[in-house]
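Sat 14:20. Reprocessing the chain from the morning session after the first attempt stalled halfway. Input below, unchanged.
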Amino acid sequence: MNKLIFKKIKNENIFAKDYDNFIKNNEIEFSDSEIAVVYGPNGTGKTSLVKALANGEKTAIQYSYNGKEYNDDSQFIIINDQNNRNIIKGETSDFLLGDDIKREHELYEYITNEYETICTQSNKILKDKFKITSGSSKLITYFSEKDNFQKNIQDLANNKSKGKKTKIDDYIVGWSKYKPYVISEYDEAKLEYFMNDLSTSKSLILEIESIDTTLVTQNTRIREVEKNTEAIRILSHFCDTEECIVCDSINIGRENLLAKKTKNKNNILETLEPKIKDILEKLSSSSTVEDPFNIKNVLIAAIETGELEGICNLKDDIQDYRDIFVKKVINELLEILNHSDIRDKNEEYKKLINEKPEINDEDFLYIEEIINNSMFKKIRIGRDDKKNIQIFIEDKEFLGIDREELPLSSGEQNFLSLTLEFLKAKNSDKPIVILDDPISSFDSIYKNKIVYAIIKILDKKKRVILTHNVDLLRLLDGQLKKCFNLFLFNNTENEENGFIPLKPDERDMLISLDTLLKAFRTKIYKYVKNKELFLISLIPFMRGYATIINNEDVKENLTQVMHGFKDELVDIGSCYQILFGKHDGIHKQYEVSVDSILNQSIEECEIVDNEKYPLLNRTLRHSFIYLYLRLLIEKVLVSKYKINTEGRNGAKQLGQIISKAFPDSSDKDAMKKRVFLTTKKTLLNEFNHFEGNLSIFQPAIDITNQILEEEAKKIINFLKNL
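Finished this time. Tokens:
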């Protein structure tokens, strides 16, 4: 389906009620060239529409595209007008499409994401399997400090950084020095004990590793410590009886016996080396913990016999399990790395970043050529001190920089920011580009280039162009014939609202004066419903056309019925035939005067077939009302205020007549009346004459029926109340 179908558009109270339950004129169908133009005059809500499509604050939108329903901006790339493009945002990769550059940024993204995955997996393995739950774990001290290897393990174990403090290159180089270890058989219980012990705050393993065997002295009574300890425990527990719980002896003297056992234990412990003493006390307090290393018995036997070989063997055994632990950690983390292709990808990436970036994308080269030749500015692609590709203009990097800081004029800033937005949109995954008034504020040279860029750079995207500029329509057609479908955007309560599709015939008449003139010369008269109003409504256009082709007679005749203070009869049927040729439907000798024109009704009527030519019918009616109001005001003001319209000093233009009727003075009432008339859309307006501008449709597409009717009523009531 090559169309957008809207169900709802809301932006606070800006849109008419029709848009809440949007069922009529709610489709934007794309042309074969994938372009739709939405024409809306200023004030209809184009900017508010863009905000809604961008899922802005206090907006709501519902639409379908390609058979799927959406209520967000997930399908739209928004390119705002120049007022909202103060900073060119994005990464360099958003704008450039050279094969190597594209590959470079693909690799960068892949490597960054892959490294994050490796770090996350490594952090989980260290925590879940090896009890290394933080970067401060004592287990980390067993890893080599060489080449910052220990710091890397510490970084991977850190629950905040999870490896991010280690550069990717350093990680790959550091770990690539290792190969998987072959680990001989070992006791799983001992390894588990080793890891659990070192993950506590009071580690026995660390105490044992630090024993100085030269300070260990023999004590044959050492085993009494355990006996005394157990006796003290029992006596303390059964403190409410004087009977022996074993032999039922009475009057055992519990307090004296407890003191004796305690003193005996302490006397023996005092003879021990302090570290040995601490270890035995810890072992006594954790008697329920399994001891796969048999630490307690080894220490007691060594002290009892004075033979220290058992302690040395115990320390060697712990050393072995330290090595096993380190090797198992390295093997597990190496497996994560070896299952990844990050090393190969990183090698490819490093080769690319050490080369000069080459741009082979035609679209960027097109922009570069315009900037270099038209702006006389140098734009280039290079690398910063971190080897990242950047876009420079006049050797200054400009992405993310406020436009005022760039060495460019306002026009150059607008062009550069807009065309780079095109490149960014081209690279986006979103299918539809929304362009808001893309050629506003540009001169004719840049307008042509921008329109070409819209067609060429964005040719793989569907484009919705919002505008109030008829020049844009002509430029699009000039670059690629019949490349767009045209919709008139209306947003006025109690009128036909939505995206009103314009038929191809009227679209061509709107953008091509030649097509419009051919219609007036040939087929249009077949569809005329009110020949009298048809000719009257064309008076301003015919006068403008006569001026262009230098037909002074027709121009002068039509001028007589374009000023309210004139009273001549003019054969406007003859004028039409002179300008556009003879037709059976357009009679010669159709005479009108200002008075006969003002006797016409300005109520709604069909001038040409509204089914065949809805825009032309609306246009002719608007042109007629424009002419009617102008004639009425001039006639009333000249008559009421006796204004001279003859000679060199006579007031011949509407603005002069208004000024004569309400001259500049301290009279507030006169000032208000003058302001009232000079601010009306329908009066001091180029479309009353069409001199130098034959855009006959402009009045109809720049003002709604409702606004026109309201303004006409205000002007007529104003004149009645003078």
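The CA atoms of residues 99 and 540 lie 57 Å apart.
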